[in-house]
Design the sequence.
């Protein structure tokens, strides 16, 4: 989002429209987005904006892609810089918590569009489902790194962990955003610590490497 | 919903409107509900329907109450008939899973309205938040019964469990509804079994009473 040096005017316009679209969709839902409203909000003509996307569905898919890209840039990619294993799992958790705490629209939309679209078959829902499957694969790979490092049991199931972590994050967003629960983050960290504890070769033992990220393997 | 013997015509009309409203809101969101659409769907005049509720917000609150009542009748009350302790926790889980599997609109709306409304302050969101707090208290009480029975550790945190279980259910709805994941239920049961395992006095030991509900205390 920051490296606009090589972008043309059309790309910047498209990026501005999509950033606004992610923000709006987080507030009123993807279904609440209209090309007319976005045209007004970005100061473009409705026909000019239509020329960028062609249809409301194409706009919704582009907004989802922008949200997923923001989530990747803010949460996933920084986590991949942490040492492989538990440190990387925890970096993913912290980035994701921050994304919710700061109410970054990308993370928010990515989480909330899934309940909005689940009864609405079509290309928008298909794209969202594929994005979620990709996220689950990413979490599973990050967890699997902990098995490779010997920090987690070889028979621990990375896909069960990915599902469990996504549940922890869904209830965190719920508790933080709808209930304004001040303990939401603490509960998420407690839940993830319990998931990791249960996956260690010797249950209950915390790996010392976890306390000192420098002790881990940097890939 | 079945005992209409003592209900007047006005009550039955209201009930029919709300059942349709829960169903519609589950599909298009609470924000997508309009008094006009519901009037058309139920064959009533718009002014007649307006007379029942007075405003769109009052209609939305009434629809949420109807969804919470359905969820209570289908999931919570049957679970309370199971023996106190783990059996009751598992009965709650099974009822909730069935509610999602059968796509009963009450359970669905109750889960999905939370992401829809979290950026929309007002009386509708306030009601939904209070309903969720009440659900968390109910889950915590059910878990606490397992502590009273000596099946779960005295220092286990019923509110952490309630939060964790809600996360398991959110990701189950997500996996079942958006991703059509055939392993969604299995993953939810695995997650809850792990939560209970971690809360037992002797981790990993399953209480024999859990396998035979008749062995438990019936309140």
Sequence:
């Amino acid at each position: 989002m920051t490296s606009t040096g090589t972008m043309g005017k059309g790309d910047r316009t498209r990026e501005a429209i999509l950033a606004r679209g992610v923000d709006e969709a987080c507030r009123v839902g993807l279904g609440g987005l209209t090309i007319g409203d976005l045209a007004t909000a970005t100061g473009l003509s409705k026909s000019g904006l239509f020329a960028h996307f062609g249809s409301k569905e194409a706009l919704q898919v582009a907004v989802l892609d922008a949200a997923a890209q923001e989530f990747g840039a803010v949460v996933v990619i920084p986590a991949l810089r942490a040492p492989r294993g538990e440190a990387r799992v925890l970096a993913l958790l912290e980035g994701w918590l921050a994304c919710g705490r700061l109410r970054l629209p990308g993370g928010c939309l990515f989480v909330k569009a899934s309940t909005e679209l689940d009864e609405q078959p079509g290309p928008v829902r298909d794209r969202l489902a594929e994005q979620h499957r990709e996220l689950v694969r990413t979490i599973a790979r990050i967890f699997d790194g902990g098995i490779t490092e010997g920090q987690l049991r070889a028979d621990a199931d990375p896909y069960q962990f990915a599902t469990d972590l996504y549940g922890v994050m869904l209830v965190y967003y719920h508790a933080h955003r709808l209930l304004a629960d001040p303990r939401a983050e603490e509960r998420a960290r407690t839940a993830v610590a319990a998931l990791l504890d249960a996956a260690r070769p010797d249950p209950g033992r915390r790996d010392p490497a976890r306390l000192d990220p420098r002790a881990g393997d940097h890939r």
User: Anything to note?
Assistant: Chain B touches chain A at residues 26-29, 31-32, 111-112, 114-120, 125, 128-129, 132-133, 160, 163-164, 166-175, 177-180, 187, 190-191, 194-195, 197-198, 203 (CB under 8 Å). Residues 102 and 108 of chain B are 10 Å apart (CA to CA). The two ends of chain B are 27 Å apart (CA to CA).
